[in-house]
Amino acid sequence: MKRIILSVMTVAVFFGLIACGDRGGQEEPAAIAEEENLPVEFILYNGAEPETIDPALISGVPEHRIYLSLFEGLMSYDPETADPIPGVAESWKISSDGLTYTFKLREDAVWSDGTPVTAQQFVDSWLRFLNPETAAEYAYMMNMVIEGAAEYNSGEAGPEAVQIRALDERTFQFDLTGPAPYVLGMLAHYAFSVVPTHVIDEYGDDWTEPENFVGNGPFVLKEWSPQEKLTVVPNETYWNRKAVQLDQVTYLPIEDNNTAYNMYKNGELDWSTEVPNDAIDEAKLRDDHQSNAVMIVYYYVFNTERPPLDDARVRRALSLAVDREEIVEKIRRKGDVAAYGIVPPMKGYQPPETFSDNAEKARQLLAQAGYPDGEGFPVFEVLYNTSETHKKIAEYVQQRWKETLNIDVELVNQEWSTYLNNRQEGKFDIARAGWAGDYKDPNSFLDLFISTSALNGGNYTSAEYDELIEKASTMPGGEKRYQVLAQAKKLLMEDMPIAPFYFYSQSNMIDLDKWGGWYTNVLDIHPTKDIYMK
Amino acid sequence: MKKYVIRRALGLIPTLFIIITVSFFIIRLAPGGPFAREKAVPDEILRNLERKYHMDDPLVVQYGRYLFDVLRFDLGPSFRYKDHDVNSLIAGSLPNSLILGLVSLGAALTLGIAAGIVSALKQNRLVDYTFMSVATVGISIPLFVVGPVLMLVFAMRLGWLPTSGWITGRYGMQTLIMPAVTLTLPYFAYIARLSRASFLDVLRSDYVRTARAKGLPGGIVIFRHVIRGGLLPVVSYIGPAFAQIVTGSVVVEQIFRVPGLGKFFVQSAINRDYTLVMGTVIVYSVILILMNFFVDLLYGYLDPRVSYD
Lengths: 534, 309
Hints:
The complex is a heterodimer.
Chain A: H1 2-23, H2 29-37, E1 41-45, H3 61-70, E2 75-77, E3 84-86, E4 89-94, E5 100-105, H4 119-130, H5 139-145, H6 149-153, E6 164-168, E7 171-175, H7 183-186, H8 197-203, E8 219-225, E9 229-234, E10 248-252, H9 257-265, E11 271-272, H10 280-284, E12 289-302, H11 312-320, H12 324-332, E13 337-338, H13 359-368, E14 380-385, H14 388-405, E15 409-414, H15 416-424, E16 430-436, H16 443-446, H17 463-473, H18 479-495, E17 498-510, E18 515-516, E19 532-533
Parallel strand pairs in A: 1-10, 1-11, 14-15, 14-16
Antiparallel strand pairs in A: 2-3, 4-5, 5-7, 6-7, 8-9, 9-10, 11-17, 12-16, 12-17, 13-17, 18-19
Helix pairs in contact in A: 11-13, 17-18
Chain B: H1 2-29, H2 43-52, H3 59-71, H4 86-121, H5 126-140, H6 143-157, H7 174-203, H8 206-213, H9 218-247, H10 250-255, H11 261-271, H12 274-302
Helix pairs in contact in B: 1-12, 4-5, 4-7, 4-9, 5-7, 6-7, 7-9, 8-9, 9-12, 11-12
C-alpha cells in the first residue's frame, strides 16, 4: 500500500507543478482593465533593455529616447529638423568672440516635485557629470568644448577649473575652448543635461527608482520592470504641459526585431524603430514605412601601420575597386546612399566630390605601388562582427577585390566584444566600422581621425590633417570654416585611411495617418512630447 | 538518511566554490571588457570607469572582494545595467523563468510519460507510431523555428493570441500559451522516447512477468510495478532538464519577450557584464546541484534497491 501511495504522490507532484505555475499570474486581469481605460497610450519598440536612465551615465540610443521624455536640457530638439530649440533656456547671449554663452532660464521650469530648476543645479549637474568618480562615458563631449572640463575629468585639476558659473538663480554661463558653432546643437544632447541634484543628495544611486524619481521633462517615470517595459506619464509640472498630448508612453525592450515587426503588424505597437533586414522588401510596400537618410556612415578601416596597407596608393586602390552603388542597391536594398566621403550631407554643408568608383584607376594605383595585377600582394584579413549584413558586404568586397585587383583576402568574423577589442587596439588589417554623428556638424565625423583620437583604430596620423581640424575648431561658424573642413575631408580621402561605403537610411514603422508630430530627420530623433493622436 | 542529507548539503559548498573560482577567471580571459563600446571610450574615461568598479586592482584582490561579497549574498552591481544590482535583476527575472519552466516541464512530463506508457503498451501499433512521430518532430525542429511559426499562425493569421508579452502585461495569461507550448515540445519529445524505451524494458522484465503470473490484474501491474520501475530514467532526467529549462530558454524568452533569466544569461556574456555573468552562473549551478540532490532522494523512494543508510 505504501508504495501505491508513493506512486500516486510522484504523479501528484508533477500535476502540482503545473497547478502552481498556473496560479502564478491569475490575479492580473483587473490591472489590465485599468490600463485599457487610459485614453491614449503610445507603445514603441525601444531596442535593447535600457542600461540606465541617469543622464550622466547613459550612452545608447534606447536610453536617449527615454531621456527625451524624462529630462530637458538648456536646448531641446525640433521634431521636424532635429535642430536645437529652446528647452529650459528662455534666451541666450553669445559674446562677440563666440567663447562665452550666457543663458537665461525659464521662470516656470520646475522639477516634477515642484522645486525650481536653478542655474546652480546646472553647475552642479555638469560638475557631477565631469567628476571622475561618476565615470561618465560621454564626458568626452563636454571635454571637447567646455573650458577646463577635460582637466577636471582626467583628474589633473579640481572642479574649480571648469569654466561654468551661476550668475544668479536663473542665469547660467559657460566658456568654450574655441568658438564651436555647433555647441547649441550639442546642448540638447544628454551629455549637457541637468539632473535633480537635491534628489540625488537625498537618495544617492537609488534616485532613478520609480518611487524616488524626479525629472524636468515632459513625462515622469511611472514603472520600470527590466526586460519587460518602462512606462512614463505626463509631468504635471512641466512648463509646456499643454503641448504634451499622450497620456502614457510605453517603451518595450525587444531583443528580437522580427518579434517587434510582427507586433507592429498585429497592432500591438504604435512605433517600431527598426525593421528586420528580411522584412525590408515587404515593409517598403507599406505606406506606414518611413525611411530617410540619417547621419550614420558604414566604412572599412585600414590599419595604416601594417604593410602593404601603410601605402596610401594601396588603400586608394582597394577603396576605388569597390562599386558602392552595387552595395547599396543589390546587397543592402534599404535605400542607403553611396558614400564618397566620411561626412554625410547635412544642412549648409554639401560634401565635395572627392573620388568615384573606378576599377581601372584602382588597378593603376596598385601597379604603381608595386603590385601589378595583384602579383606578390600578401593575403590579409577583413574583420567584422558576426552579422548577416556585414558578412554579405564582406563577401561582396572580397569577390570584387579578387575580380578587379586579383588579390585575395580572408574574412574573419568575431563576436561583438572580441571584435571591438581587436578593432580598437589596432589588431586587424582591415576592419568594418560604423559611426553615428552626435550633432549636426562635419566635425562630429572628421574629429575621429585626428592622431590623438581614441576612436582612430587604424592609427592614421597626419600632422596636416590635425592642423586643419584644430584650425577649424578656432573659427566661428560659416562658409570659411566649412571650407577648411572640406579641405580636411579632401585630405582624408586622399590618404584614405578608411574606405567609406554608404550612409545609412533608417527605417521606422509608424502610421502617420494616425499619429501626428512625428517626422523623419537626419538624427532620427523623435521627441515623444510632440507626438499626438490625430 | 539524515547523515546522507547533511553530507550532500555540505558537499555543495566546495562544488560551488570551484564553480565560482573557475568561472570568475574564465570570463576575465575573454577578450574585451564591460566598457567596450562602438564609440571607444577615451583612455582617461576608461580609467575613471575602471576605478569606479575596482577593476584597476589586481585580479586576485578583485576575486577576494567578490568572494567576500558572495558570502554575504551580495552579487554586486551590474556593469551594464547601472541602475540595478545583480541581486535585484535575478530576483526580478528568475520567478518568470520558473513559472514558464514549471508549466512547460509539468506539461512535458505529464504528456511525455502518458505518451510513453501508451506507446509501450501498444508497441508498433498506430498510436505508438503517432506519438513517436510527434516526438521525432519535437526533437528535430529547433525552438527558433517552432516559436515564430506558432506566432505566425496563432497571432498573425488567426488572431487568437497576442504575439508576445508576459502574464503581467495587458494580455495576461494568454501570453503564457505559446512560449509554454514551444518550450514543452522538445522536452515532451525527449521524455516520451525515454519513457517508452524504459517501460518496454520493464514490461519484459522478470518481476513484471512474475506479477502477471501471480494473477495480479493488469491495472495493478502497470501502476504498481511498471510505472515505478519505468520512471527511474525520467526522474534522473528531471534534474538537468529543470535547470536547463529555467535558465536555458533564451530563444523562447527572446521571441516571446518573456522577462526571464535566460536573456540575462546570454546578454551578460556578450556584454562582458562580469558580475551578472557570475550571478547567473551561480544561480544556474545552485539549481542544478539542488535538483540533482532531490532526484537522488526521489530515487531512494522509487527504487527499493537504492539505500542511503
